[in-house]
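Appendix B. One record, verbatim.
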Amino acid sequence: MIIKHEQVENVTDIEIYITYPKKTTFVENLLKLIKSADTQLICQSNGNVKIVNSSEIDYIESIDKKSFIYCEKNSYLIKEPLYKIYEKLKTIGFIQNK
């Protein structure tokens, strides 16, 4: 795998272009990983709003109809129902354990 990157000062957003000879599981996983870096959830902690990147999430659970996101050092309340959170995250490789 060859990785090339460059800083271009006049661009307004990050653009990633991936070329591959065949779409393999490795390529699929790489695309999911890149997408996960851009997936964010709006949460609450002690009354403050916090944006959590999906790459920071260890697991999510629902207790008494409230959803909580657990990261390495903190946990957050999220107002969205668990099924909506799962819909957002399943495309980037999160799985639901029932």
